Fold each of these.
Amino acid sequence: MFGFGAKNIGIDLGTANTIVYSEGKGIVLREPSVVAKNTKTDEIVSVGSEARAMIGRTPASIVAIRPMKDGVIADYDTTVSMMKYYIEKSLEPHSGRPDVMVCVPSGVTEVEKRAVIDATKVAGAKDAYVIEEPFAAAIGAGLPVMDPTGSMVVDIGGGTTDVATISLGGIVSSRSIRMAGDKLDEAIIAYVRSHYNLLIGERTAEQLKIDVASASVEAAKELESQSVRGRDLVTGLPQTVEIKPEDVATAIQEVVQAIITAIKETLEETSPEIAADVIDHGIVLTGGGAQLRHLPEVISEATKVPVFVASEPLDCVAIGTGESLKNIDVMK
Ligand code: ADP
Ligand code: MG
């Protein structure tokens, strides 16, 4: 290899966040997967955090788009624009086109995979490769994925929760469910609306989740109430309401239980040897949703397996995707 040309990059193209890893450097970019567009001219107004701040606050002429939904591309053109912007931002000036590794959720269709590869090339990659997200998450979490021992990783992102057992460099069994961070936010919005007569926005619900949500209704009783602003459904006027953490915990129970069910089903499908390995080493949680309060305890209680949160859970997939760039020559 010669020192010219671009450094290869790995991209975690997530429903909530896009993270870029540059070979030899590590993570060089972390931005929300959001693009703001002018609805009349179709021009891009802003990308990333600036666009995210506009969600729920746009005038008629601007729309804030999240081009990824449930882990896959929902708006192809906007995804390309966003990736183009992030790829350019991650490269050194005057470097050539990089080879790019992008992760996709396990269980995506060939068509969805193809769309990611095409979008990445149109966005500026010389060549594009995909890696399955739970596999990348496991590498990023430091699990011994190549060893003849079973590991289990649960990646809870914005759109999907991906559960997988991994051994000898491959995924043994996996589940991908469309129940993750966004569904937690939606459940909170619905609950606050029906129990407090208050209409709150997506961003407010997410903040409430980060501030007080707990996977355990019992444990939530120890947390302090949170005041939240929204619109009173009766008067139609702005209103501040104190929300009890146990209510937030109750609101999200269904999503938490769906995640637990997916974990149990994946465990039931594995061989007794791998199940035994998982009991020994525990389940590792990655993704932003892994930071939900008391989630490890609740999963552990339901599965009778120890559960840990990876260090830097939000970065695991990007790190694993970046590390697997080493194998690009093999994949070629
Ligand atoms: P994706 O890979 O889908 O882009 P991420 O792994 O970046 O998703 O995680 C984003 C999700 O994590 C969002 O739904 C966000 O609200 C959620 N999240 C971030 N921090 C926390 C937290 N402290 N508690 C619970 N959820 C969180
Ligand atoms: Mg992710």
Amino acid sequence: MEHVKCLIIGSGPAGYTAAIYASRANLKPVLYTGVEVGGQLMQTTEVENYPGYPKGVQGPAMMDDFKAQAERMGTDIRWGYVTSVDFSVYPHQVTIDESTTLLADAVIISTGASAKWLGLESEARLNGYGVSACAVCDGFFYKNLEVAVVGGGDTACEEALYLANLCPKVHLLVRSNKMRASQVMQARVEANPNIQIHWHTQTLEILGDTQVTAMRVLNTQTNETSDIPIQGFFVAIGHKPNTDIFKGQIDLNPEGYIVTKAGSTYTNVAGVFACGDAQDSIYRQAVTAAGTGCMAALDAERWLSHEEFVKSQA
Ligand code: NDP
């Protein structure tokens, strides 16, 4: 069985930053990318708030830079998906693609988060046939068509603005009388003539047999139901941490985020560290993910040195 000193799970800003620091600390990290190589930033267009890019940068280009830097430092980057872990044994056991099991002295979890869905039967059935959770990925297919975005956070606003550049009409469905998005994003949405905001609006069903043709919505204030013709339906209601494989292995909070000790990336299991969106339900920014990735590598390095010292004294 392959035995590695430091195993990093996930390839977003947190994972790659952990890889850069762990490589430079000579931990010889092996990083498994997961299916969504590069993480959520691969689905973003312009990133304007990551320091060091004064002119902004495209999300995928930024992640290529992160990956290239981790590779240059010597990280062994492998394509593969972690399907299970056993943290009750030491060295920890991590299984890739249900087939290969590795032993790891330290594990850094940076599995990120994924888009949430409404949970409607029609949403699942029409996923890929007009239903999407990524305007940047799929918006192009709806050029000059009418679409809807559900959600009231920064993601929903960003998606609506992106689509408003392609589509003559974007319906933004907000379930209450207020948005969670930042003031600047709300102002941009409100000023865009192609976006119509529907307050107090809940989606009952997405209509269409093989392709989305309309949505059935309920105004919860007037109790009126209406069918609005659309061709694309974009869900932008937040994210869920990708931590299902760690259930029962490490402490998770009720929303599934990994619990880390205050001011560190230590989990409740010795030798297991967590960083990025998998443990951060508050900031969820690329720069904070990268920051905690750095912390995880430093924590792992110090922890491993301490373990080696203890062993050498035994
Ligand atoms: P948020 O959690 O901020 O917002 C989720 C939105 O979806 C809320 O308006 C919520 O409504 C709504 N919602 C949740 N569930 C449902 C449902 N079942 N039906 C209808 N609406 C629903 O998630 P975001 O993904 O927007 O943002 C996450 C974080 O990322 C935030 O911190 C945000 O600031 C940040 N971000 C920053 C960006 C930037 O700076 N450019 C871009 C994108 C995100 P309610 O308020 O009623 O709960």
Amino acid sequence: MASFNIVMPKLGESIQEGTITKWFVKEGDTIEEDDMLFEVATDKVDSEIPSPVDGVITKINYEEDSLVAVGEVLAVVSLDGEVEETESEETESKAETEPTTGEAPAKAETETTDASVDDSRKLSNRFYSPLVKTIAKEENVSFDELESIEGSGVGGRVQKKDIMAYLENRGSSAAQPEAKKESKPAAPAAPAVEKKVAPPVSVGAGDTVVEMDRVRKLIADHMVMSKQVSPHVTSVVEADVTELVMWRNKNKEAFQKKYGDKITFMPIFTEAVAAALAEFPMVNSSVDGDKIILKKDVNVGIAVAKPDGNLIVPVIKNAEQRNLVGLTKELNRLADAARNNKLDPAEIQGGTFTITNFGSFGNIIGTPIINQPQVAILATGIIEKKPAVLETPSGDVIAIRHKMYLSLSYDHRIVDGALGGAFLRRIADHLEQFDINRAI
Ligand code: CO6
């Protein structure tokens, strides 16, 4: 039987796994190229995956709701319509030995054979990323030790930080290579990080219990992880944005007429942020262990509230290279796609900084949580008219001005108050210096 393995596709640069949320086919179904096979959900985005081949589905290896690593065989398709009588082992060996057509499938990836993954799977249900396996190998972490590490990733997956924390705590007793044992003083093993257990919640007779959906759980996990990973501090500035409000009021209709897109304040905020990030590269960075990675691209994520109450952060790539028209069009396109569940996985990846507009709910100020692995996030409050003291050549006057608060949460591991404060002030300066006569 000529067979073809349908594998979990890699839906984005940093995506290592996905959840099968729906199968559109079952074993025994005849399928044609481009027929939808299954729906997969990765970090907040759902995609439908079509078949790259014609054939008959002979085996489905994972049920709905399974979290599966990229490259795993999800289903087997018989290309000549023959159905194997025997079970998986034979099917697998045939799939490996029989050439598929040699043609790279366009929609799903071919199976990758990774001996160590296969070996570990014989003993374990857990998936270890290549990075974790490399660290384990280098540090002589046995398979049993690896299995004992508590994972903080989705579905309890062991992440780099988990194995690094384990290595830090494992002390001198573990089976380290001799040279490493000598070079490290035999420090007493640090106590394992205490896992916080939430207090039990009592449910009364009239209370309603609502199950969190998958996205809600992901957001919850991400928020907890972010607070654990980086010590957040928040600084606040007030900006007088009268000129830019007047500019927008004056040009709103003409802008829409000329470019077919509505301009709000968000593209202007984004423009100011992108310019400031280009001037302060340390804020446009990530922390990797003891290293700071200064990102080349300025990719600004925008928190978008979805109609279902969830939140998603599409990314305006290379924001510093776009003009106001380009930023407006990209923001509107991404916000629209986000609200309609039409974002591609790549469109929520690669962010180097995030803006969250609390002003959308009429809030004046907020202390946002950093979107890891970034190191800072800006919250923009509502623009309001306020009485303000202005210094004029003929003395101080009280005038009605448009003002807003900008608050920046930043990772105090690498951004100190002076840097965070200067960066935030620079954003405010860009907004305050907006040219009221700017041409559209
Ligand atoms: N001030 C004054 N007026 C505002 C402001 C502020 N800050 N923000 C929006 N608006 C106005 C805007 O100009 C529009 O006015 P008109 O053009 O005169 O009609 C109007 O409000 C509606 O704006 P809209 O929301 O449609 O578009 P906008 O481009 O401003 O925002 C968006 C796009 C995608 C950011 C927004 O639709 C949205 O989803 N906002 C919610 C973001 C959110 O949920 N943030 C909290 C996330 S939780 O971040 C979080 C880390 C944790 C804490």
